[in-house]
């Protein structure tokens, strides 16, 4: 249990140089960077530190990225398994230990319900514990706000139990019977595996997410990709930055020390695979005819990554053992495009269909038409307003443990510069105040 480091009774009516909204790894990282610079601030967290990991992940959850990538500012992973994958409770403990390590000015259990900017440029924050103001604001509320479930779900029979991936905990939570999992991003694949390993009959609607092998030529593929510079490549290098930001992550798992997720092997072992779910009419479901395309695409991406690793190994003359390539162990010949839930004994559906963003409580014109914050490296065009923890905010590791610290350093540097500008000019915008204007020039 982290110590509460800021007395909530001092919040209402207070004024801070900086307010950080959200006490996940992003909010804590920027807090550490501000702390190092001696910049006074407050971190307001709606729940408890580590809430997302603690409350929105399943019981068998573990990281997909190796522990050595957990390098929060001033607090890199210190355990004895850098190449392993922390399980859910270890991740929560890592964040709690981070709090104990530098004791940020953190308030837990307080939601920021509205942010506005006054005519003079001061930020006005309404919270469940009263209003306060700040000169600068960092929004670190994570990328995954509202569970996304397609409206077609309303057409399922009432007796089918439905749960979003963020509310899935374990196979035992679902009624006896077969389960339909919709979606094959990281969550969908791992939940399907969780259910499959527990002996449940799983029906899986497969989407277009790519996959990556866990290990290749003696190392974790993440380690190869890191060495090859993929995690430091800036979003600015891509012509299609908007599309890159929307990319779905490759599926793979860290479970039991890490392994591939091979949907074909699951199918060989009895899991029923389908293409994308296209229609629901009571118990009658229809799927697109794209299962083969989707499986082939996922394999092609995984093999393409191996090609790139081979080229890197050859280029650098690295001594890495050769490894045979993947051969598909199952092909979707004659797979059904329909599923009758009653006939198949399906009693529950897990929607692994992602999340929607929700920044409507920020009443500041800093967003594009889709509600995505307009920013460069988290810095917006509104002086003093920053975002942190967005996927691909600046690089592939943004929005994850890998790069959130680098992004936090950058934002903290900007905040510091803003304060110095205000010291000289009187305001964050650089518009001269009466005092600054009175100073003779030259
Ligand atoms: C299923 C899944 C698996 C993942 N696996 C990995 C992995 O293996 N490795 C990896 O590096 N990353 C992984 N990630 C990505 C990323 O690390 C997590 O999403 C992480 O939780 C992001 O941290 P954050 O601090 O940016 O946001 P969050 O952890 O979402 O924290 C935001 C905090 O803000 C608080 N908050 C929200 N709104 C308000 C408000 N209005 N007022 C006050 N507080 C508010 C929330 O309570 C929350 O605690 C995974 C993500 C998901 C969904």
Automatic annotation (TrEMBL):
Transmembrane region(s): none
SUPFAM superfamilies in the record: FAD/NAD(P)-binding domain
Keyword terms, alphabetized: Oxidoreductase
InterPro entries in the record: Auxin_biosynth/cation_transpt (IPR050982), CHP04046_FMN-dependent (IPR024000), FAD/NAD-bd_sf (IPR036188)
Source species, domain of life: Bacteria
Gene3D superfamilies with a match to the protein in the record: FAD/NAD(P)-binding domain
NCBIfam families per record: MSMEG_0569_nitr
PANTHER family: FLAVIN-BINDING MONOOXYGENASE-LIKE PROTEIN (AFU_ORTHOLOGUE AFUA_4G09220), FLAVIN-CONTAINING MONOOXYGENASE
Protein name as annotated: Flavoprotein involved in K+ transport
Organism annotation: Streptomyces pseudovenezuelae
